[in-house]
Amino acid sequence: MLKRAVDVLISLILLILTLPITIPVMILVWRQDGHSPFYIAPRVGKGGKLFHMVKLRSMVKNADKSGVDSTGSNDMRITPVGHFIRRFKLDELTQMWNVFLGDMSLVGPRPNVKRETDLYTSVERRLLLVKPGITDFSSIVFSDEGDILKDKPDPDVAYNQLIRPGKGYLGLFYIDNQSFFLDLQLIALTAIAIFSKKRALNGIVRILRGLEADEWLIKLAQRETPLTARMAPGAVRIVSFRDEDVSI
């Protein structure tokens, strides 16, 4: 009840306070090609239920028709205004509407597309036990996702090898340790990350150590070494091609 009350209050306040930012950006998106400034993204929520996530459109119209779900920072589908939107995470401001409606929470594992969740292992399916969120551990640790996937020959495979494993383990760690105080800490660190990702990562590391996380997860959160391919939670091998079921 307290979590939901905070979600409603903060999302409503942010939707109102950020109007001076979102309205001009919406106009810029519309002016560049004459199409809607919104991208209504189908995502999988709690219990596997589909919902429509509201995002400021950062890519050309019908970009999702390409069949590529993961996006590098140099993706040709990103518009000039879209680069600005992605750099400052402005597309997440409109997602506050989903928080207000109850599809999402301020804090929780980031929502994924059905094509990805259909391939979840039995362990990863635990990520669907809670509402997806605007931010969590992985939102800060992998806030440079676009740069991680940049120049990769297959961004979807690279995502599954480099990001999906850590994102999954961090999401599961959040579920196992969730609390109102942890949510407040993650919200604060998300704000800090806008100005200093290093300070935010240090905060994440302190939380993980305090909650006695595995050492490898702590090292991952430090992001001091290059990411390497790893098996997703519950997988028996590393993903080698798109849509591969690695749970058997």
* Percent helix range: 40-55%
Largest sheet: 2 strands, antiparallel
Structural class: mainly alpha
Please report which band the strand proportion falls in: under 5%, 5-15%, 15-25%, 25-35%, 35-45% or over 45%. 5-15%
Overview in brief:
Helix content is 48%, strand content 8%. By secondary structure, the protein is mainly α.
Keywords:
248 residues; mainly alpha; two-stranded parallel ribbon
Could you explain the architecture of this structure?
The chain contains eleven helices and four strands. With 248 residues, it is mainly alpha-helical. The termini are far apart. The radius of gyration is 17 Å and the shape is globular.
List the helices and strands and how they pair.
Blueprint: H1 2-17, H2 19-33, E1 38-44, E2 50-56, H3 80-87, H4 96-101, E3 105-107, H5 114-117, E4 133-135, H6 137-141, H7 145-149, H8 155-177, H9 180-195, H10 197-210, H11 215-222
Parallel strand pairs: 3-4
Antiparallel strand pairs: 1-2
